[in-house]
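Appendix B. One record, verbatim.
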Amino acid sequence: MGVAYKIFFCYREKCHFRQRIDQDKNGKTGLIENHLNLRTEASILQTVGYFDIFQYPLTAEEIHRFLGCPVTEKKVTEILKLLCVENRLFCIKGFYSLTNNPALVRRREDGNKRALHLLEIAYRIGNLLYKFPFVKGVGISGSLSKNYADEGADIDFFIITSSNRLWIARTLLHFLKKISFLVGKEHWYCMNYFIDEDALEIAEKNLFTATEVVTLKPVCGEEVLKDFFSANEWVSGFLPNTKSNPLNEMGFMNEPWYKNIVEKLFNNRFGVWLDEYLMRVTKKRWVQKETNHQVNMKGEPVGLKIGKHVARPNPEHLQKKILDMLAEKKAIMKMEWDIKFD
């Protein structure tokens, strides 16, 4: 009886979602809803597939947030049930995944717990970074911005600097990074993404960068971070259900007296020359690293995109790798289940 009931239930769900075309005389309403269901189904599988690359199962609320099409949470919940009945998705303790693997859920739960402690440290360090000259905004990025931390996880920071002073700010901050090596805490000071006030809009516009923008945790610099999110409203085209970023949760941070003094000292031609000189020195060093195929502690190739207003990881490395992996997953799902992705 159990197997027969499951078959009947699956058939009824398919009929309800995919074959209801008689809601009006011409069948147009049903066809539109059927198209919406199929689009939502594909978007759900893509969303779960994207986070499956990071072995990170999602809740129904998170799936709705990161979905690629505008739809209600109720509709997402309904289609999630269907996908689980068809064994396209698996739900374990409220977390959805492409594989029926309870270990992934335990891994996520442990990582979420570790992140709570590490986030406290990250906010304290972020407040410290904000006190450096020409630093106008600080946010927490990377896996920690998604409330997850592996054992020995890095703390990644997103830094916005004053216009045309990015390289002075970055050099000063990397002196702090060098000091952190002396106490074995260098993984707490991963300042690998810098932009200045003249380059607030993220150049690469794709699912990876959109996800990083909407999950960024603001620390300090409310005004410039507000401008940053406004300059990147394009993310709604990739993640239309995402809510606004929690700028109202930021605490007010007074800038130290010495910060304004140092900034005034370099607010001249010498400051312009020094910023450009530091950029050239840094570029020369990183070109040599890439030429020598140098890798980081994780065995990944190092690379830095360098410009007057930006210093960020080379998108040809991690970003491209993740998007290529997602494309492979989508190709497999399309072949196995005849899913049509947008």
